[in-house]
């Protein structure tokens, strides 16, 4: 059952403002991509402005073309180019120029590369941290085909948060995701990060693709079981007629229920949940607020995770 008419709660104003314009200019100057733009995210202006906390922008590494073809995603598939060796330094320069407090790095899938681009990803983290160790870095990584050595390269670069999205419940992994992705593989990536480090772990689910409530609950339980710290929920929106159709527009009240389930029943550090929420939505603001609620700095929270 597809509903083509969007409800009122999904209406958003287009991004604007001086800071939004300045960030776009800096990105073009360094020839960089953001997933905010490539995936047509409706929250660009809100996240980039940092009105209520750390400004957040999500840089997309390793080009704007992906080796996979997930049926929900608006990023182009195929025709990947060689990695730009200057990209890690260029991202760090752009972050410094923009003055971001919290940076999210993500990437296309690069199954054509021997390590899936893990070393390139890790170098970008290090470039940012070497220039300013106070900048919080969240990485939203591919599954690297489940290769633990590639995942370990990301861990060793010591970002503050490592995210990898399961995207949907187990039953719907296909047709939502590319067949090379799967539920168990994604869980294994998140579990490895939890077991081998004290880095915060995060994942995201889209609702409205045909999932049942009991499946969402089971997914949240599975994520808690392997030690994931943060989970987000957002509404799937069809990027074009050639993409997966929306099964249902989920009411904001339902998103509120899942937030309570995640935070109050399972004890996740925080859960961002709402129709317009995306994986990186106000990531810096929510992360810092969650730590402050617990009376922790980033360093103290890491020590507590280690002790546990």
What is the CATH topology assignment?
TIM Barrel
Give the assembly state of these chains: single chain
Q: Note the run of SSEs as H and E.
A: HEHHEEEHEHEHEHHEHEHEHH
- The assigned structural class equals alpha/beta
Shape: globular
Tell me the β content.
Answer: 5-15%
**CATH 2nd-level architecture:** Alpha-Beta Barrel
Number of helical stretches of at least 4 residues:
12
Number of domains: 1
Distance between the termini: 45 Å
State the CATH superfamily name. Answer: Aldolase class I
Q: Would you tell me the overall average pLDDT? A: 86
Largest sheet: 8 strands, mixed
> Rg from C-alpha positions?
18 Å
Q: Please state how the strands of the largest beta sheet are arranged side by side.
A: 1-2-5-6-7-8-9-10
Under CATH at level 1, the class stands as Alpha Beta
Number of strands: 10
Task: Provide the low-confidence segments as ranges.
Answer: 304-308
Description:
The protein is 40% helix and 14% strand. By secondary structure, the protein is of the alpha/beta class. It has a single domain, classed as Aldolase class I (TIM Barrel, Alpha-Beta Barrel), CATH 3.20.20.70. Helix 5 packs parallel to helix 6. The C terminus is likely disordered. Helix 10 links the parallel strand 9 and strand 10. The termini are far apart.
